[in-house]
Design a protein that fits this description.
The chain is an alpha+beta fold and 336 residues long. The protein has three domains: 33 residues; 225 residues, Metal-dependent hydrolases (TIM Barrel); 78 residues, Sandwich (Immunoglobulin-like). Helix content is 25%, strand content 29%. It has seven helices and 17 strands. Strands 1, 2, 3, 4, 5, 6, 7, 8, 9, 12, 13, 15, 16 and 17 form a 14-stranded mixed β-sheet that branches. Strands 10-11-14 form a three-stranded antiparallel β-sheet, with no helix packed on it. Strand 2, helix 3 and strand 3 form a beta-alpha-beta unit. The longest helix has 29 residues. The protein is globular, with a radius of gyration of 23 Å. It starts with a helix and ends with a strand. Bound molecules: zinc ion (2 copies). The site of one zinc ion (ZN) has 4 residues, from loops.
């Protein structure tokens, strides 16, 4: 082989290596593309006061289009490794382990979920409502778990000012499917959405989740019981694993839903755009909500777009469906 041929081959080889690198990179990039995963982070089994075994509960969610589930029994950490290996479809459905730390302060129920905790955390107690919450949040963080604060209006236990005092917590329930948790407030007590805007308006970043808190799987149509399928989150993540899902949730890259599905949600420095996946004959109204709960704009077009003025402090969106279902996107802060 002549020198010039050898040189030509070397160049071709280098070009192929480069192509492989570029192509490999492109393949990697597309593997990293994010998609939406449906999940519920609050459910009970017979390991506390639920009526069904972990197997049965998992089966219900698996058969109803979910991608991930947390079994959160009261002060009990259910092992999920066995369930995960039986499921055998790690890119379609995973179990994330968890528990509901079930504490109280002067008879007020204070329940904090610990998601993906390394080991069981026992209730930590404390000398005020906020103190009990904080001690439990700290204990969950200490074992690499992600906390979320549950049903603040259950027993009218947790106020917005209690929640404002808590540090190192990103998630709380703005919708809980249990029939006795007073999501909407009333009789002079604020609902969870009003509490949320109160907290956000002081500059605290707190994201709103929707959950089932299901206990009863034997009587699915009975709304006097806490049945499954009423509240969930749709999380945007690069892949389906506990770390990715929980990281995305703590960054607010998800929406809460009681039955509304979005085709897409985009927020950048200029605007929020919401593309609703319509269902049947339902009609939709999108409210863009700012500081102190003020409705900044109401849109009936789909996609619904809100362009920032820059002086809103924060903007979040609520999609209201004509049969009472809803979706909530997370606040986008401006000039905080
Ligand atoms: Zn609870
Ligand atoms: Zn519960």
């Amino acid at each position: 082989m002549s020198e010039s041929n050898k040189r030509a081959m070397r160049i071709r080889g280098a070009a192929l290596t480069l192509l492989a690198l570029v192509f490999g990179f492109a393949v990697n990039q597309s593997a990293q593309e994010k998609r939406w995963y449906k999940g519920n982070t609050h459910t009970h089994t017979i390991n506390s006061d639920g009526d069904s075994t972990p197997d049965e509960v998992v089966r219900w969610y698996r058969e109803h289009g979910y991608n991930f589930l947390v079994l959160s029994d009261h002060n009990y950490l259910t092992e999920v490794d066995g369930l995960n290996s039986v499921l055998g479809a790690a890119n379609k459905f995973i179990m994330i382990k968890g528990e509901e730390l079930t504490d109280e302060f002067q008879k007020k129920p204070i329940h904090i979920n610990g998601l993906n905790v390394k080991e069981l955390v026992v209730p930590q107690h404390g000398d005020s409502v906020a103190g009990v919450i904080q001690n439990n949040v700290n204990a969950i963080r200490k074992v690499d778990g992600v906390p979320h604060i549950n049903h603040p209006n259950f027993g009218w236990a947790i106020s917005a000012s209690d929640l404002k005092a808590v540090k190192n917590n990103r998630l709380f329930e703005i919708y809980n499917g249990h029939p006795q948790v007073n999501n909407l407030g009333g009789g002079g007590m604020p609902g969870l959405e009003a509490m949320w805007d109160d907290i956000l308006s002081t500059g605290i970043t707190l994201y709103g989740i929707a959950v089932d808190d299901a206990h009863n799987f034997k009587t699915p149509g009975d709304r006097t019981k806490s049945t499954p399928g009423h509240g969930w989150v749709m999380v945007r993540a690069a892949s389906l694993n506990a770390g990715e899902i929980l990281r995305a949730m703590e960054q607010g890259d998800f929406y809460a839903s009681t039955g509304v599905t979005l085709r897409d949600y985009q927020a950048d420095g200029k605007q929020i755009a919401i593309n609703i996946a319509p269902s049947g004959t339902s009609k939709y109204t999108v409210q863009f909500i700012g500081r102190w709960g003020k409705v900044l704009k109401e849109v009936t077009a789909n996609p619904a777009v809100y362009t920032f003025n820059g002086d809103e402090f924060y903007v979040r969106a609520k999609v209201i469906e004509s049969n009472g279902k809803a979706a909530w996107t997370q606040p986008v802060f401006l000039n905080k």
